[in-house]
Every structure is written in C-alpha cells, then in structure tokens.
Amino acid sequence: MVELNWTYEAEQWLHDIYDYISKDNPEAARQTIESIYNKVQILKEFPESGYCYNRNHLYHIRILLYGHYRIAYLIKPDENIDILGVFHGSLDIDRYLVD
After folding, report:
1. Domain count along the chain
2. 16: part of which helix (H) or strand (E)?
3. Which residues constitute the domain of residue 15?
C-alpha cells in the first residue's frame, strides 16, 4: 500500500491555515484541517487522483483539490507519496513548486 508522508513544510501550511481560521472560529479550523487530512487519504488507493502539475518537469508533482485549497504532492519512484504543501487558491503556487 502507498505510504503518505507529510513534509515539514506541508505540516507548517496546515498549522498556518488552522491559526488563520481559528481566529474567528476554532471549530471550523479543526474541521477544515481534518477534512484536508481525510481528502489526502484517497491517494492511498488512487495516487493519481489529482491533476498533473506541468510546470515542474523534473518531478511527478500532482495537485489534489479540496474546496479553496490545492494540495500539492509528489509521487516518488517507489510509488510512495510526499505531501508538499496545502495552498489556498489565491496563492501563486508557482512560487513554491517551481525550481
């Protein structure tokens, strides 16, 4: 079975999202983070669910959508997956994913 690995950067993004939402509604923040985590679990069975991120040709990066968020992940040669980050749709994702 595919193993999911949350990178340090991805965990930081989740903390930042939680902190931002929890200023107004801590319960909504908890639910949002939990829902993002649950959405990522689909990759264990369907690793190519997200669309291909074509701006970085060196790696097999894909983007899984969840609400206003884009979850960037890397399918490694051993078929395990690294979650690279969770980006709000308003962010310029290229700043973070392009070499």
Report:
1. 1
2. helix 8-22
3. 4-97
